[in-house]
Every structure is written in structure tokens, then in C-alpha cells.
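Worked example 3 (structure in, sequence out).
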């Protein structure tokens, strides 16, 4: 799939088939994250790839707004440098890259925004100085629960030319 097509068709995916995700695809997804822009090129991120079912189940129980996490065949947990001013912005870009790359390869994910960070950090043995940024479940689509199209704000509500309020390009 072309990059632009992947970016504009991607949807969050909150259900997953049982099909395993190939390790090479997980590696390609992590590499897409590693290639994100970062302030001063500090790359203030770490990626923990998880395929162990027991770990996924335990970690999923700590994802308050990610009840779908335990059914995913694989997770990528993103940790941020707790002392880096731009870590949130940079990690968010890495997440977007990974979501788009996964979609281009037929996989889906959903950002999990609320979780018990300390419990997950302990489970994964995150070293001090690193904080949990997010948990991303990855997998193929569950045909019974495909991703839903989102209502996108109309173009002329958010795009302006030369001056704010001028919608004629
Ligand atoms: C910072 C952030 C946090 C999010 N947290 C959650 C979450 O905790 N649970 C969830 O189901 N979706 C979460 N989402 C997914 C959004 O609901 C989703 O991206 C949005 O509805 C637009 O849908 P789309 O990504 O398919 O275009 C989060 C997205 C972002 C960017």
C-alpha cells in the first residue's frame, strides 16, 4: 500500500483475529517508529515488543481504556525518556509512524491512553529514567468487528490559505 493511502485510510482497530503477527512485520513497525522526527534528533524512546501471551494478559489488565489489549497477538510498549522536554511529542510521532506502517502491511492498532503506568513499568522492568508512554496492540482484523470509519472534520473547517478564514486555495 502506498504511504498516502495508508495514512488516509488508517482506522484504529479495537478487535483482533487470532492470527499471529510475523516477527519481521513487528520489526518493520518498530523501525517505522525509530525513523520518526525527534527534537534535536534525541530519539527519546524505547520500544518493548511483546508476544508472550501471559505477559500480554497481565499487561492488558492494567490498560484501563484498552479492554481489547489482551486479545491482541502482539504489543509494542513505548517508553519515553522521563527527562526529555520533547519526549511526549517525539514518542507521539513514533506512534503515528508505527500505526501507519502497520496499516500498510494489513495490520491495525489502537493507542491506549489510560493505564496503570507504575504496574506496567514494574512488569516490564523499565529502568529508572524511563516512563511509560503508551501501549499499542497489533494484529490482523477480526472480520466480525472491523475498524469503523471516523467522522472527519470537513476540509474547509480546518484548512486555510494565506490567511486564517480564507478557504479558497
Ligand atoms: C492520545 C490518544 C489517546 C487515545 N486513547 C485511546 C484509548 O485509551 N482507548 C481507545 O479505545 N482509543 C484511544 N484512542 C484512539 C482514538 O479514539 C481514535 O484515534 C480517534 O477516535 C480517531 O479514530 P481513527 O484513529 O480511527 O481516525 C486514542 C488516540 C490518541 C491520539
Amino acid at each position: 500500500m502506498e504511504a498516502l493511502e495508508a495514512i488516509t485510510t488508517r482506522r484504529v482497530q479495537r478487535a483482533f483475529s487470532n492470527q499471529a503477527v510475523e516477527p519481521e512485520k513487528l520489526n518493520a513497525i518498530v523501525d517505522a517508529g525509530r525513523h520518526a522526527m525527534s527534537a534535536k534528533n534525541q530519539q527519546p524512546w524505547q520500544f518493548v515488543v511483546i508476544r508472550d501471551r501471559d505477559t500480554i494478559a497481565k499487561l492488558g489488565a492494567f490498560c484501563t481504556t484498552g479492554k481489547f489489549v489482551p486479545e491482541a497477538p502482539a504489543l509494542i510498549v513505548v517508553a519515553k525518556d522521563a527527562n526529555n522536554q520533547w519526549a511526549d511529542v517525539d514518542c507521539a510521532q513514533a506512534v503515528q509512524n508505527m500505526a501507519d506502517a502497520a496499516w500498510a502491511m494489513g495490520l491495525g492498532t489502537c493507542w491506549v491512553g489510560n493505564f496503570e503506568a507504575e504496574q506496567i513499568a514494574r512488569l516490564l522492568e523499565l529502568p529508572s529514567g524511563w516512563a511509560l508512554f503508551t501501549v499499542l496492540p497489533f494484529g490482523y482484523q477480526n472480520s466480525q468487528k472491523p475498524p469503523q470509519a471516523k467522522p472527519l472534520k470537513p476540509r474547509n473547517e480546518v484548512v486555510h490559505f494565506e490567511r486564517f478564514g480564507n478557504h479558497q486555495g
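Notes: The chain has a mean pLDDT of 97. The domain at 3-158 is CATH 3.40.109.10 (NADH Oxidase).
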